[in-house]
Amino acid sequence: MSEICLWKEKYRIGNKEIDEQHYQLFSKIENLLDIARSGNLENKKKECQDLIEFLMDYTKFHFYMEEKIQREMQYVGYTQHVWIHQGFIQTIQEYKEKMEQDFSPNLLKSFVGTLVTWLAQHVCRCDRKIMSNTPLEDHSALAGTAENIHLIVSKLLEDICGLEVKNAKSCLYKGFVEGKVFIRRVVTGESEYVFLYGFSEPLAREAYFTISSLQIEDIENLDEIESSALAEITSIMTTYITGILSDEPAADLRYQDAVVTSHYTDGGYNLSDGIVISIETDHGNMEVLYCKVK
Fold this sequence. Notes:
The protein is an alpha+beta fold. Helix content is about 50%, strand content about 15%. It has seven helices and six strands. It has a six-stranded antiparallel sheet with strand order 1-5-6-3-2-4.
């Protein structure tokens, strides 16, 4: 088993109390990741359940303390930050309930991949802004769909994965999206949207390594940790994009996703009106298809 080190010095935000709590969260998630990768889940079931219970309780405690600090300093992004925290608590609770019914290695790996990616992006994207009292981005002033998607995806790739975006361009959908790993997210409310994210192999590998300090072992056969980590990156992107492009409350939207390698078909959706944004980074490319289908 290779060594793992999820905690990185770049995650420090400049508040000793918050930094220590973040370190504890990453440390416990790393313990869970080690169990998930060990193939010895049955013998470590009690330890694993205790870790999940700790993560639920400690995350609530951490969010309470972080929000208390934000209130005391009158942080300008407090309301939105609280909303993001509540969404993550719900995610942990949903996984916890699923694992009470099906305590399987695959589900545990999916949970760990989601945890690692969410926490890394939240610290980099949101928590870094607390001490400087900087608001969370509002992209609503941007005029066009393609510009919004380009800006959000590029910023997330830079913040979460440390990838420098070198170039971006947009065009109408021509029947395919380039990539090696594809993640389709369908967002349904009063309207319905289809997003298709295509990672080149170098980008998929670099993004996953940056977040987890692990290598993708077989790009053709991603395991659940790898799949859920990459899917969570696109989930975060989709949430930000729909928050700008849709007037519907986030709580009213439903999400479905699928992860595919090597070959992707439209899955029965008419995507002829879709827009594709091609983003070039210093470690490979990503293409993002966006289409409002209803």
